[in-house]
Design a protein that fits this description.
Bound molecules: iron/sulfur cluster
Number of strands: 12
Oligomer: single chain
Strand order of the largest sheet: 2-1-3-5-6-9-11-12
Largest sheet: 8 strands, mixed
Strand content: 5-15%
Length: 429
Protein backbone atom coordinates (compact mmCIF):
# COMPACT_ATOMS: atom_id res chain seq x y z
CA UNK A 1 0.00 0.00 0.00
CA UNK A 2 1.37 3.41 -1.01
CA UNK A 3 1.03 6.43 1.23
CA UNK A 4 1.12 10.05 0.18
CA UNK A 5 4.39 11.88 0.83
CA UNK A 6 2.86 14.18 3.42
CA UNK A 7 1.16 11.45 5.44
CA UNK A 8 3.06 10.71 8.61
CA UNK A 9 2.33 7.71 10.80
CA UNK A 10 2.95 9.65 14.01
CA UNK A 11 -0.63 10.96 14.43
CA UNK A 12 -1.86 7.34 14.49
CA UNK A 13 0.86 5.78 16.63
CA UNK A 14 2.77 8.35 18.64
CA UNK A 15 2.11 10.92 21.31
CA UNK A 16 4.24 13.64 22.84
CA UNK A 17 3.92 15.36 26.20
CA UNK A 18 6.12 18.26 27.25
CA UNK A 19 7.47 18.70 30.80
CA UNK A 20 4.72 21.33 31.23
CA UNK A 21 2.15 18.72 30.03
CA UNK A 22 1.57 20.37 26.65
CA UNK A 23 0.52 17.84 24.03
CA UNK A 24 1.74 17.76 20.45
CA UNK A 25 1.86 15.32 17.54
CA UNK A 26 5.58 14.86 18.12
CA UNK A 27 8.49 16.87 19.49
CA UNK A 28 9.26 18.30 16.04
CA UNK A 29 5.79 19.50 15.07
CA UNK A 30 5.04 23.19 15.09
CA UNK A 31 1.61 23.73 16.57
CA UNK A 32 -0.23 26.34 18.59
CA UNK A 33 0.53 26.24 22.28
CA UNK A 34 -2.29 25.10 24.52
CA UNK A 35 -1.22 26.81 27.75
CA UNK A 36 2.41 27.95 27.61
CA UNK A 37 4.35 28.37 24.38
CA UNK A 38 7.29 26.04 23.82
CA UNK A 39 10.24 27.04 21.72
CA UNK A 40 8.99 25.95 18.30
CA UNK A 41 5.32 26.71 18.77
CA UNK A 42 3.62 28.84 16.19
CA UNK A 43 1.47 30.87 18.57
CA UNK A 44 1.43 31.73 22.25
CA UNK A 45 -0.85 29.85 24.61
CA UNK A 46 -3.31 31.42 26.98
CA UNK A 47 -0.84 31.52 29.90
CA UNK A 48 -3.54 29.80 31.94
CA UNK A 49 -3.22 26.14 32.85
CA UNK A 50 -5.96 23.96 31.41
CA UNK A 51 -4.53 20.44 31.25
CA UNK A 52 -5.76 18.02 28.61
CA UNK A 53 -5.90 14.28 29.09
CA UNK A 54 -4.63 11.89 26.44
CA UNK A 55 -8.16 10.75 25.76
CA UNK A 56 -9.33 14.33 25.14
CA UNK A 57 -6.32 15.01 22.91
CA UNK A 58 -6.10 11.84 20.83
CA UNK A 59 -9.40 12.23 19.00
CA UNK A 60 -9.87 15.92 19.77
CA UNK A 61 -10.58 18.53 17.11
CA UNK A 62 -6.93 19.26 16.34
CA UNK A 63 -5.78 15.66 15.91
CA UNK A 64 -8.85 14.85 13.81
CA UNK A 65 -8.08 17.80 11.54
CA UNK A 66 -4.43 16.69 11.22
CA UNK A 67 -5.44 13.19 10.17
CA UNK A 68 -8.07 14.45 7.73
CA UNK A 69 -5.62 16.82 6.06
CA UNK A 70 -2.87 14.18 5.90
CA UNK A 71 -5.24 11.67 4.33
CA UNK A 72 -6.30 14.28 1.78
CA UNK A 73 -2.65 14.57 0.72
CA UNK A 74 -2.17 18.10 2.10
CA UNK A 75 1.26 19.34 3.15
CA UNK A 76 0.76 20.44 6.74
CA UNK A 77 2.33 23.67 8.02
CA UNK A 78 2.55 21.93 11.41
CA UNK A 79 5.08 19.55 9.84
CA UNK A 80 7.36 22.23 8.41
CA UNK A 81 10.37 20.85 10.34
CA UNK A 82 10.10 17.61 8.36
CA UNK A 83 8.81 19.16 5.10
CA UNK A 84 11.64 21.69 4.89
CA UNK A 85 14.35 19.72 6.73
CA UNK A 86 14.70 22.56 9.25
CA UNK A 87 16.65 20.55 11.84
CA UNK A 88 18.33 17.83 9.80
CA UNK A 89 18.07 16.03 6.50
CA UNK A 90 17.11 12.65 7.96
CA UNK A 91 13.67 13.82 9.06
CA UNK A 92 11.56 12.44 11.90
CA UNK A 93 8.71 11.41 9.56
CA UNK A 94 11.04 8.82 7.98
CA UNK A 95 11.71 7.32 11.41
CA UNK A 96 7.99 6.67 11.97
CA UNK A 97 7.66 5.31 8.47
CA UNK A 98 10.39 2.74 9.07
CA UNK A 99 9.03 1.73 12.43
CA UNK A 100 5.31 1.61 11.65
CA UNK A 101 4.80 1.24 7.91
CA UNK A 102 3.23 -2.18 8.56
CA UNK A 103 0.39 -0.32 10.29
CA UNK A 104 -0.59 1.64 7.19
CA UNK A 105 -3.52 -0.66 6.28
CA UNK A 106 -4.81 -0.24 9.84
CA UNK A 107 -4.43 3.54 9.54
CA UNK A 108 -6.69 3.46 6.49
CA UNK A 109 -9.34 1.21 7.98
CA UNK A 110 -9.35 2.69 11.48
CA UNK A 111 -9.87 6.31 10.50
CA UNK A 112 -13.37 7.75 10.25
CA UNK A 113 -14.24 10.56 7.80
CA UNK A 114 -14.06 13.03 10.72
CA UNK A 115 -10.40 12.07 11.33
CA UNK A 116 -10.94 10.10 14.53
CA UNK A 117 -9.17 6.77 14.82
CA UNK A 118 -9.71 3.63 16.83
CA UNK A 119 -5.94 3.11 16.94
CA UNK A 120 -4.22 3.84 20.23
CA UNK A 121 -0.79 5.37 20.74
CA UNK A 122 1.92 2.72 21.00
CA UNK A 123 4.88 5.06 20.72
CA UNK A 124 5.49 7.34 23.70
CA UNK A 125 7.47 10.50 24.21
CA UNK A 126 6.36 11.45 27.71
CA UNK A 127 8.58 13.98 29.47
CA UNK A 128 7.58 13.47 33.05
CA UNK A 129 9.12 16.75 34.24
CA UNK A 130 11.91 19.19 33.40
CA UNK A 131 14.26 17.48 35.90
CA UNK A 132 17.79 17.84 34.56
CA UNK A 133 21.22 18.25 36.09
CA UNK A 134 22.65 20.19 33.10
CA UNK A 135 22.27 23.79 31.91
CA UNK A 136 23.19 23.51 28.24
CA UNK A 137 23.47 26.93 26.65
CA UNK A 138 21.15 25.89 23.84
CA UNK A 139 18.46 24.83 26.33
CA UNK A 140 16.23 26.66 28.81
CA UNK A 141 14.01 26.47 31.86
CA UNK A 142 11.18 24.50 30.22
CA UNK A 143 13.49 21.54 29.61
CA UNK A 144 15.88 21.83 32.54
CA UNK A 145 15.20 22.25 36.24
CA UNK A 146 18.82 23.41 36.68
CA UNK A 147 18.12 26.23 34.21
CA UNK A 148 14.87 27.00 36.02
CA UNK A 149 16.66 27.28 39.39
CA UNK A 150 19.29 29.55 37.90
CA UNK A 151 16.64 31.79 36.35
CA UNK A 152 14.83 32.07 39.67
CA UNK A 153 17.96 32.61 41.71
CA UNK A 154 19.19 35.43 39.49
CA UNK A 155 15.75 37.03 38.98
CA UNK A 156 15.93 36.47 35.25
CA UNK A 157 12.32 35.41 34.73
CA UNK A 158 10.16 37.85 32.81
CA UNK A 159 6.88 37.44 34.69
CA UNK A 160 5.08 39.75 32.24
CA UNK A 161 5.51 37.09 29.53
CA UNK A 162 2.55 34.64 29.70
CA UNK A 163 4.79 31.82 28.51
CA UNK A 164 6.56 31.94 31.88
CA UNK A 165 3.36 31.63 33.90
CA UNK A 166 4.01 27.88 34.35
CA UNK A 167 6.72 28.82 36.87
CA UNK A 168 4.26 30.65 39.15
CA UNK A 169 4.18 28.56 42.35
CA UNK A 170 0.45 27.79 42.24
CA UNK A 171 0.54 26.73 38.55
CA UNK A 172 3.72 24.73 39.16
CA UNK A 173 1.78 22.83 41.83
CA UNK A 174 -1.16 22.21 39.51
CA UNK A 175 1.19 20.84 36.85
CA UNK A 176 2.88 18.56 39.38
CA UNK A 177 -0.51 17.28 40.59
CA UNK A 178 -1.61 16.53 37.01
CA UNK A 179 1.70 14.76 36.33
CA UNK A 180 1.43 12.69 39.52
CA UNK A 181 -2.12 11.59 38.93
CA UNK A 182 -3.18 11.70 35.27
CA UNK A 183 0.13 11.38 33.42
CA UNK A 184 1.44 8.58 35.60
CA UNK A 185 -1.85 6.74 35.13
CA UNK A 186 -1.83 7.14 31.35
CA UNK A 187 1.66 5.74 31.02
CA UNK A 188 1.27 3.11 33.70
CA UNK A 189 -1.93 1.86 31.97
CA UNK A 190 -0.05 1.63 28.67
CA UNK A 191 2.72 -0.40 30.32
CA UNK A 192 0.36 -2.72 32.20
CA UNK A 193 -1.87 -3.20 29.13
CA UNK A 194 1.18 -4.04 26.95
CA UNK A 195 0.63 -0.96 24.75
CA UNK A 196 4.24 0.18 24.58
CA UNK A 197 5.97 -0.74 21.32
CA UNK A 198 8.32 2.18 21.21
CA UNK A 199 9.39 4.53 23.95
CA UNK A 200 11.46 7.65 23.60
CA UNK A 201 13.18 8.76 26.77
CA UNK A 202 14.08 12.42 26.63
CA UNK A 203 13.85 15.12 29.21
CA UNK A 204 14.75 16.94 31.15
CA UNK A 205 17.31 14.25 31.58
CA UNK A 206 15.54 10.89 31.30
CA UNK A 207 18.14 8.96 33.27
CA UNK A 208 17.43 11.32 36.18
CA UNK A 209 13.72 10.40 36.03
CA UNK A 210 12.79 7.81 38.62
CA UNK A 211 9.88 7.02 36.25
CA UNK A 212 12.29 5.86 33.56
CA UNK A 213 13.82 3.22 35.80
CA UNK A 214 10.51 2.15 37.34
CA UNK A 215 8.63 1.73 34.05
CA UNK A 216 11.47 0.10 32.13
CA UNK A 217 12.01 -2.41 34.92
CA UNK A 218 8.28 -3.13 34.86
CA UNK A 219 8.26 -3.63 31.07
CA UNK A 220 11.06 -6.18 31.49
CA UNK A 221 9.21 -7.87 34.41
CA UNK A 222 6.09 -8.16 32.25
CA UNK A 223 8.18 -9.93 29.60
CA UNK A 224 7.36 -7.16 27.14
CA UNK A 225 10.99 -6.21 26.52
CA UNK A 226 11.08 -8.42 23.43
CA UNK A 227 8.55 -6.23 21.63
CA UNK A 228 9.83 -2.84 22.75
CA UNK A 229 12.15 -0.50 20.92
CA UNK A 230 13.71 1.93 23.41
CA UNK A 231 15.20 5.21 22.31
CA UNK A 232 17.13 7.70 24.43
CA UNK A 233 18.41 11.22 24.19
CA UNK A 234 20.58 11.62 27.23
CA UNK A 235 23.42 13.68 28.57
CA UNK A 236 24.90 10.33 29.70
CA UNK A 237 26.02 11.70 33.06
CA UNK A 238 24.63 8.64 34.84
CA UNK A 239 23.92 5.06 33.79
CA UNK A 240 23.13 3.58 37.23
CA UNK A 241 20.17 4.17 39.53
CA UNK A 242 18.97 2.32 42.63
CA UNK A 243 21.44 -0.52 42.09
CA UNK A 244 20.40 -1.02 38.45
CA UNK A 245 22.53 -0.46 35.40
CA UNK A 246 20.97 0.91 32.23
CA UNK A 247 22.80 -1.39 29.84
CA UNK A 248 22.96 -4.59 31.87
CA UNK A 249 19.57 -4.53 33.62
CA UNK A 250 17.37 -2.79 31.06
CA UNK A 251 18.69 -2.49 27.51
CA UNK A 252 20.01 -6.05 27.39
CA UNK A 253 16.33 -7.12 27.77
CA UNK A 254 14.55 -5.10 25.07
CA UNK A 255 14.08 -5.95 21.38
CA UNK A 256 16.41 -3.20 20.29
CA UNK A 257 17.50 0.21 21.44
CA UNK A 258 19.22 3.36 20.41
CA UNK A 259 21.00 5.73 22.72
CA UNK A 260 21.84 9.17 21.39
CA UNK A 261 24.35 10.67 23.76
CA UNK A 262 24.43 14.44 23.40
CA UNK A 263 27.83 15.96 22.90
CA UNK A 264 28.31 19.34 21.23
CA UNK A 265 32.08 19.55 21.53
CA UNK A 266 34.93 17.70 23.18
CA UNK A 267 36.88 18.70 26.30
CA UNK A 268 36.52 22.21 27.69
CA UNK A 269 34.53 23.54 24.71
CA UNK A 270 32.02 20.73 25.07
CA UNK A 271 31.79 21.48 28.78
CA UNK A 272 31.21 25.18 28.02
CA UNK A 273 28.36 24.53 25.57
CA UNK A 274 26.74 21.95 27.84
CA UNK A 275 27.19 23.26 31.38
CA UNK A 276 27.24 20.26 33.71
CA UNK A 277 29.09 17.98 31.30
CA UNK A 278 32.14 16.17 32.63
CA UNK A 279 33.71 15.02 29.39
CA UNK A 280 35.67 12.18 31.00
CA UNK A 281 32.55 10.78 32.69
CA UNK A 282 30.64 11.02 29.41
CA UNK A 283 33.39 9.13 27.60
CA UNK A 284 33.60 6.40 30.25
CA UNK A 285 29.81 5.90 30.19
CA UNK A 286 29.80 5.85 26.40
CA UNK A 287 32.52 3.19 26.32
CA UNK A 288 30.48 1.15 28.80
CA UNK A 289 27.49 1.29 26.44
CA UNK A 290 29.67 0.10 23.58
CA UNK A 291 30.45 -3.07 25.52
CA UNK A 292 26.74 -3.92 25.49
CA UNK A 293 25.85 -2.81 21.98
CA UNK A 294 25.38 -5.40 19.27
CA UNK A 295 25.20 -3.14 16.22
CA UNK A 296 26.47 0.31 15.29
CA UNK A 297 23.10 2.07 15.40
CA UNK A 298 22.72 1.53 19.15
CA UNK A 299 25.31 3.91 20.58
CA UNK A 300 25.42 7.21 18.76
CA UNK A 301 26.88 10.62 19.34
CA UNK A 302 24.21 13.28 19.01
CA UNK A 303 25.84 16.53 17.94
CA UNK A 304 24.01 19.84 17.77
CA UNK A 305 25.92 22.38 15.75
CA UNK A 306 26.29 25.77 17.44
CA UNK A 307 28.42 28.82 16.84
CA UNK A 308 31.15 27.73 19.32
CA UNK A 309 30.59 24.16 18.10
CA UNK A 310 31.76 25.18 14.61
CA UNK A 311 35.25 24.84 16.10
CA UNK A 312 34.41 21.25 17.10
CA UNK A 313 33.21 19.78 13.81
CA UNK A 314 36.46 17.97 13.06
CA UNK A 315 37.10 16.83 16.66
CA UNK A 316 33.62 15.30 16.95
CA UNK A 317 34.00 13.42 13.67
CA UNK A 318 37.37 12.16 14.80
CA UNK A 319 35.90 10.99 18.11
CA UNK A 320 33.08 9.14 16.31
CA UNK A 321 35.66 7.45 14.13
CA UNK A 322 37.81 6.46 17.11
CA UNK A 323 34.80 5.02 18.92
CA UNK A 324 33.53 3.35 15.74
CA UNK A 325 30.05 4.88 16.02
CA UNK A 326 27.62 6.83 13.89
CA UNK A 327 27.25 10.53 14.34
CA UNK A 328 23.90 12.28 14.31
CA UNK A 329 24.12 15.92 13.47
CA UNK A 330 21.67 18.81 13.53
CA UNK A 331 21.78 22.57 13.85
CA UNK A 332 20.46 24.40 16.87
CA UNK A 333 16.96 25.64 16.10
CA UNK A 334 16.76 29.40 15.59
CA UNK A 335 13.47 31.22 15.78
CA UNK A 336 14.64 34.80 16.46
CA UNK A 337 17.82 36.80 15.86
CA UNK A 338 18.92 36.73 19.51
CA UNK A 339 19.74 33.00 19.31
CA UNK A 340 23.44 33.76 19.06
CA UNK A 341 24.32 30.12 19.74
CA UNK A 342 23.31 29.51 16.11
CA UNK A 343 26.03 29.66 13.44
CA UNK A 344 23.49 31.58 11.32
CA UNK A 345 24.11 34.62 13.52
CA UNK A 346 27.33 35.07 11.52
CA UNK A 347 27.14 37.20 8.40
CA UNK A 348 27.63 35.26 5.18
CA UNK A 349 31.15 36.54 4.47
CA UNK A 350 32.30 34.91 7.72
CA UNK A 351 30.06 31.85 7.77
CA UNK A 352 30.38 30.56 4.22
CA UNK A 353 34.17 30.31 3.92
CA UNK A 354 34.21 28.51 7.27
CA UNK A 355 31.49 26.13 6.10
CA UNK A 356 33.34 25.50 2.83
CA UNK A 357 36.46 24.44 4.71
CA UNK A 358 34.46 22.15 7.00
CA UNK A 359 32.40 20.66 4.17
CA UNK A 360 35.58 19.73 2.29
CA UNK A 361 36.90 17.86 5.31
CA UNK A 362 33.59 16.26 6.46
CA UNK A 363 31.48 13.28 5.52
CA UNK A 364 28.11 11.65 6.20
CA UNK A 365 25.49 13.32 8.38
CA UNK A 366 27.84 16.10 9.43
CA UNK A 367 28.56 17.03 5.84
CA UNK A 368 24.83 16.98 4.98
CA UNK A 369 24.09 19.39 7.81
CA UNK A 370 26.88 21.76 6.81
CA UNK A 371 25.81 21.74 3.15
CA UNK A 372 22.20 22.38 4.09
CA UNK A 373 23.19 25.16 6.48
CA UNK A 374 24.93 26.93 3.62
CA UNK A 375 21.67 27.09 1.69
CA UNK A 376 19.85 28.85 4.53
CA UNK A 377 19.55 32.61 5.01
CA UNK A 378 21.75 34.07 7.73
CA UNK A 379 20.08 36.08 10.48
CA UNK A 380 20.95 39.43 8.91
CA UNK A 381 19.17 38.29 5.74
CA UNK A 382 16.24 36.72 7.53
CA UNK A 383 15.62 39.51 10.02
CA UNK A 384 17.28 42.64 8.51
CA UNK A 385 15.34 45.07 10.71
CA UNK A 386 15.92 43.36 14.06
CA UNK A 387 19.28 41.66 13.47
CA UNK A 388 21.47 44.23 15.28
CA UNK A 389 19.13 44.43 18.25
CA UNK A 390 18.83 40.63 18.44
CA UNK A 391 22.58 40.17 18.27
CA UNK A 392 23.16 42.68 21.08
CA UNK A 393 20.52 41.01 23.26
CA UNK A 394 21.82 37.49 22.63
CA UNK A 395 25.42 38.48 23.16
CA UNK A 396 24.60 40.24 26.44
CA UNK A 397 22.87 37.07 27.61
CA UNK A 398 25.89 34.92 26.74
CA UNK A 399 28.11 37.23 28.79
CA UNK A 400 25.64 37.31 31.68
CA UNK A 401 25.58 33.51 31.85
CA UNK A 402 29.37 33.37 31.69
CA UNK A 403 29.50 35.71 34.66
CA UNK A 404 26.84 33.82 36.67
CA UNK A 405 28.38 30.42 35.96
CA UNK A 406 31.91 31.67 36.47
CA UNK A 407 32.85 29.83 33.30
CA UNK A 408 36.54 29.05 33.02
CA UNK A 409 36.18 29.10 29.22
CA UNK A 410 34.35 31.87 27.37
CA UNK A 411 32.78 32.27 23.95
CA UNK A 412 35.65 34.62 23.09
CA UNK A 413 38.23 31.98 24.11
CA UNK A 414 36.54 29.44 21.85
CA UNK A 415 36.10 31.79 18.90
CA UNK A 416 39.77 32.78 19.11
CA UNK A 417 40.37 29.65 16.98
CA UNK A 418 38.90 31.70 14.14
CA UNK A 419 40.40 35.20 14.41
CA UNK A 420 38.04 36.94 11.94
CA UNK A 421 35.03 35.59 13.83
CA UNK A 422 36.51 36.64 17.16
CA UNK A 423 37.02 40.13 15.79
CA UNK A 424 33.35 40.24 14.69
CA UNK A 425 32.25 38.98 18.14
CA UNK A 426 34.31 41.61 19.92
CA UNK A 427 33.12 44.37 17.58
CA UNK A 428 29.63 43.91 18.93
CA UNK A 429 30.70 44.48 22.51
S1 LIG B 1 5.69 14.90 9.69
FE1 LIG B 1 7.32 15.30 11.15
S2 LIG B 1 6.56 17.03 12.39
FE2 LIG B 1 4.78 16.10 11.37
S3 LIG B 1 3.98 14.64 12.85
FE3 LIG B 1 5.36 13.54 11.48
S4 LIG B 1 7.32 13.53 12.50
FE4 LIG B 1 6.08 15.10 13.49
Amino acid sequence: MQKSKSLCLAPWTHTYLSPQTERRMCCASRESAQNFAQYIDTSAGTGRYIPITLEQHWNGEHMRSVRQRMMAGETLPECEVCNDQLLNTDVYRTYFEHLFRHKLPEVMTSTAPDGSTTMQPVSWDYRFSNLCNFKCRTCGDMLSSAWESEQRQHHMIDWTNPKNAWMQPEIRQEIAAFQDSQIEKEFSDAVEQHRVEEVYWVGGEPLMYEQHWRYMVRIVELNDGGRVYARYNTNLSRVDYGGRNLFRNILAHVRDWQLCASLDGVGATGEYIRTGLDYDVWLANFRQGLQYSSHPRQMRIDFTLTLPGMTQVMAIQQLAQELGVQLLAKVVFSFSPDIVMSPLVLPKHLLHPWLDELIDASSGAMRDVLVHLKSRPTFDEQWPDTYAQGLAKGRARVLQLESIRKSSTSMADILSARPAVLEWWNQHA
